[in-house]
Design brief:
Layout (H helix, E strand, L loop, with lengths): L9 H18 L6 H8 L3 H28 L1 H18 L6 H19 L2 H8 L5 H25 L6 H22 L17 H6 L2 H28 L6 H29 L2 H21 L3 H15 L2 H13 L3 H25 L4 H14 L1 H5 L2 H12 L1
Amino acid sequence: MARVVTGSRWTAIAGYALVGAATQLVWLNFAGVTTVAAARYGVSESAIGWLAQVFPLLYVVLAIPCGLILDRWFRAGLIAGAVLTALGACVRLIGDDFGWLLAGQIIASIAQPLVLNAVTGITGHYLAEKDRPTGIAVGTASIFFGMVIAFLLSAVFTTASSLSTMLAVTAVFCVVAALLLIVALRKQGPFEMGRHRPDRGALRVAWGDPLIRRLCVLAIFPFGVFVAMSTFAQALLEPAGVSGGTASTILLVNVIAGVLGCAVIPILVVRRRAESALLVVSLSCTAAACVLLALAPGVETGFAAITLIGFLLLPALPIVLELVERRTGEAEGTAAGLIWMAGNLGGLLVAVVVGLLVDHPSAAFLVMAAIALIAVPGARALRRPIAELRSLSQS
């Protein structure tokens, strides 16, 4: 007898959104207070930077194993990610020294791929097909919203004596998010019974798909530009008279614009069947914005260009992930892991290249423009396979 499928369960998406935000909050807690934290804990600013760098480094290593776990034990894997995120945030409160901070960051960084790789799976297990593009957009937007929370907390808790309070607030948020997700997932997803594990290895299923491989290569470029811009915008704009505080505000507005873009643009794009066109437009506009920064850096151009990049470039992620969910089905955890791994690898590589050019801002901005432009033909070439995918899903 066929199982009766109930409607979409949005409480699961809400719980996931909180945990997704929590992972980014723990990751970027010290991004805005690096100097203060270094003085507080008696280490170098480079050491404080490693509290964030362990996340992308471990993501590259753990993306595929965590994706395989999610494909086999989705709810257990996602709950483990939520619990480990909360545990890592709490471990940082045990002792007032750098060792406990690093231990907590490592625990939370192990959890991050379990959470972020699940952004497609949570929609596939708990939402009806018509609601999945919206669910992926909301889940992805919440991840970037976690960055906004991190920047806001670092703007409020700016002194060495207030850092412990910032860490406590973060821990409470992570624990509450984990508990709410566990409650939301206490029952099996309404669409879970109809989803079968791949009859071959999930990694073989995902990587064996030409479209997934194309999307992985494509993800390297927008991820790389965004990570490099977020990492070095302040240093690259400083010679043009942009202060550190102003640069931080520009980056905050950039992420807020990205959150808004992720919540709105992918839904409209999927409805209009314009995924390839949007990717082409976002990459082209990103390249133009980087050229503007190379030729006329300043406060006004910084706000305009970097906000535009956030609004148009960040929505590329949920659009790509929605294609992954539609294409791979039961192997979506592994496929999403491949996308995230490629993106994090791109972020590391482009950030290294731009970092070498940090004393030559114009050259650095032009390199980012070139990297965005390189991806445009690949985005345009997606039009045909996306159309074929849509026709297959409708047949």
